[in-house]
């Protein structure tokens, strides 16, 4: 399976221009034999939605989106989804003119410069899904920082985790370095869930924030097999073997003894004790 990581610098609010760039990169990827092209989080709209006066959300069945997957490769594309009453930070998996899966971001950060809850509502489901290449799951940016979600995806059979992201460079004078955190997190996730991880971050400057790129592919042993450059646009094409997941999970069956009943009981206890829903 050949995957193209489209590390782009999208233009805030310019859906038409971003669609044109997206289509061009998909055609380039097709010429290089790619089976799947993955774009960053919100790649059709830009991230700083609070800077926009107009509603630029898109219907998931917008025919312009379906056309993106008619050039050969499947496509993962990020958009602000029009959910009628609510808007969602979503990633669509498209294949042969059809939407195979729609993941709505589950954990919306609302600290420091991030104000996603002002502009989007959280999703309510996390599902692995079958494609013509492998069983996959999508986790958008901050979703991947929640330890239970990659584990749930793997328990649902995901062999490939796709992680579209808008990760900014170091924001404060402290010791928090997003690039370093992402490296450790992606390595840990691939190693412990014994799956491929495809991380695609954007680049460019937007509303006073600089995005660093560094998109990469990590194998089921936790080794980084390819990395895109920092700070600049890139189209990185990588071959992966989904069958390696099965081999790895047979070698060391870390996921086999999930004890889902135990987890359900303990989660119900915590929910009852905290009053959360």
TrEMBL record:
What SUPFAM superfamilies does the record tag this protein with?
Answer: Carbon-nitrogen hydrolase (SSF56317)
Q: Which InterPro entries match?
A: Aliph_Amidase/BUP, C-N_Hydrolase, C-N_Hydrolase_sf
Q: Which Pfam families match?
A: CN_hydrolase
GO molecular function terms noted in the UniProt entry:
N-carbamoylputrescine amidase activity
Every copy of the CN hydrolase domain together lies at 1-242
Question: Gene3D superfamilies under this entry?
Answer: Carbon-nitrogen hydrolase
Q: What is an annotated GO biological process for this record, any one?
A: putrescine biosynthetic process from arginine
What are the UniProt keywords, alphabetically? Hydrolase
User: What name does UniProt use for this protein?
Assistant: Amidohydrolase
Gene source species: Amycolatopsis acidicola
Q: Lineage of the source organism?
A: Bacteria, Bacillati, Actinomycetota, Actinomycetes, Pseudonocardiales
């Amino acid at each position: 399976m050949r995957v193209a990581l489209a590390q782009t610098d999208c233009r805030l609010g310019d859906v038409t221009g971003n669609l044109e760039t997206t289509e061009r990169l998909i055609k380039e990827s097709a010429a290089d034999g790619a089976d799947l092209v993955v774009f960053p989080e919100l790649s059709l709209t830009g991230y700083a939605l609070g800077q926009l006066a107009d509603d630029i959300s898109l219907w998931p069945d917008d025919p312009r989106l379906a056309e993106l997957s008619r050039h050969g490769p499947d496509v993962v594309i990020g958009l602000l989804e029009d959910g009628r009453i609510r808007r969602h930070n979503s990633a669509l998996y498209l294949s042969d003119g059809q939407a195979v899966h729609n993941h709505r971001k589950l954990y919306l950060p609302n600290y420091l410069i991030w104000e996603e809850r002002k502009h989007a509502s959280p999703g309510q489901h996390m599902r692995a899904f079958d494609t013509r290449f492998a069983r996959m799951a999508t986790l958008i940016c901050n979703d991947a920082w929640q330890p239970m979600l990659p584990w749930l995806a793997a328990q649902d059979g995901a062999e490939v985790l796709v992680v579209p992201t808008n990760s900014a460079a170091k924001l404060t004078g402290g010791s928090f370095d997003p690039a370093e955190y992402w490296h450790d997190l992606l390595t840990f996730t691939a190693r412990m869930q014994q799956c491929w991880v495809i991380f695609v971050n954007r680049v460019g400057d937007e509303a006073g924030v600089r995005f660093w790129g560094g998109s990469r592919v990590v194998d089921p042993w936790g080794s980084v097999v390819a990395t895109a450059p920092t700070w600049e646009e890139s189209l990185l094409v990588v071959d992966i073997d989904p069958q390696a997941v099965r081999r790895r999970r047979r070698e060391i069956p870390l996921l086999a003894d999930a004890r889902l009943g135990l987890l359900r009981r303990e989660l119900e206890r915590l929910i009852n004790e905290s009053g959360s829903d």
